[in-house]
Write a structure and sequence with these properties.
The chain has a single domain, classed as MetI-like (MetI-like fold), CATH 1.10.3720. 67% of the residues lie in helices and 0% in strands. It has 15 helices and no strands. Helix 4 packs parallel to helix 7 and helix 10 crosses helix 15. The radius of gyration is 28 Å and the shape is globular.
């Protein structure tokens, strides 16, 4: 009795395919190294800031990078010497009011420039964008004199007007770019149903604009929280000042208490980190969607 055996055809070994699988990803590895180096350079000042606030004053520039002994004495010193609580509240109030005002004006203007038709729309839009090309330092004296003529000098209301008016054009530009990514059919369908423009804006368009609004909030919060020049120029009353000009007063003319200064700066950046972490997903989505026009 004979047994027939069938020989299975052998598949030739694909050497180029195997070689490609074993090939070391040089391009991706090089890009990863560059990103790691950039991340290290970016995070180094923050690490130095925190470590300096935890070391003795006589070891700031002479001791090792990582302090051998850790002390938290600089934090109560910074809190008490600058009246940190009062000025922190001033920064929170001024920043919150500025962010709300900028978001309202930027959202309304961005929707109008993206979805509405009105006379001289392009001219007005270009004129608003032209204000972005003017450096803020060149406007300090005219704005100072204007606030003085309005009786708003040395008031937080005058500072809020400066912040909102100077920041609204850029935020409007972002919101316009984001609204243009939304389909016009949504607006047209709502108009056919008899909805007014404010109803369309509030119930149809605005709920879809959360990523763009989050982007504006993060940018504006960071800009207003760290602003120094306008606040230090407009406000002469120390109790009205936000946090950043007060922290700058810790810089001495001949000597500086670096642990106290860095402790105050470390406490001042906590709200910025919390806001960014809280709105990170919406921020990434807004940067992605607003960058591409359908």
């Amino acid at each position: 009795m004979t047994t027939l055996t069938t020989k299975q055809p052998t598949v030739p070994f694909d050497r180029p395919t195997a070689a490609r699988r074993r090939r070391f990803p040089v391009g991706k590895s090089f890009a990863s190294l560059i990103l790691i180096a950039v991340a290290a350079l970016t995070i180094f000042p923050l690490i130095w800031l925190v470590l300096t606030s935890l070391r003795e004053q006589n070891t700031v520039f002479s001791g090792p990078f990582i302090p051998t002994s850790i002390t938290f004495d600089a934090y109560p010193t910074a809190w008490n010497s600058t009246d940190f609580g009062l000025h922190f509240f001033n920064s929170v109030w001024i920043t919150t009011a500025t962010v709300v005002g900028v978001v309202v004006f930027a959202a309304l203007a961005g929707y109008a420039f993206a979805k509405l038709r009105f006379p001289f729309k392009n001219v007005i839009y270009v004129a608003l964008l032209a204000t972005l090309m003017m450096p803020s330092t060149s406007l300090i004296i005219p704005l100072y004199l204007q606030l003085k003529s309005f009786g708003l000098l040395n008031t937080q209301a005058g500072l809020l007007i400066l912040y909102i008016s100077s920041s609204a054009p850029f935020s409007m530009f972002l919101m316009r770019a984001f609204f243009q990514t939304l389909p016009d059919e949504l607006v047209q369908a709502a108009r056919i149903d008899g909805a007014g423009e404010l109803t369309i804006f509030w119930r149809v368009v605005l709920p879809l604009a959360r990523p763009g609004i989050a982007t504006v909030i993060i940018f504006q919060f960071l800009q207003t929280w760290n602003e120094f020049i306008y606040a230090n120029t407009v406000l002469q009353n120390t109790d009205e000042l936000p946090l950043q000009p007060v922290l700058f007063s810790l810089v001495g003319q001949y000597a500086t208490d670096w642990p106290t200064l860095t402790a105050g700066l470390t406490m001042s950046i906590i709200p910025v980190i919390l806001v960014y972490v809280w709105m990170q997903r919406q921020f990434v989505a807004g940067m992605t969607l607003g960058a591409v026009k359908n």
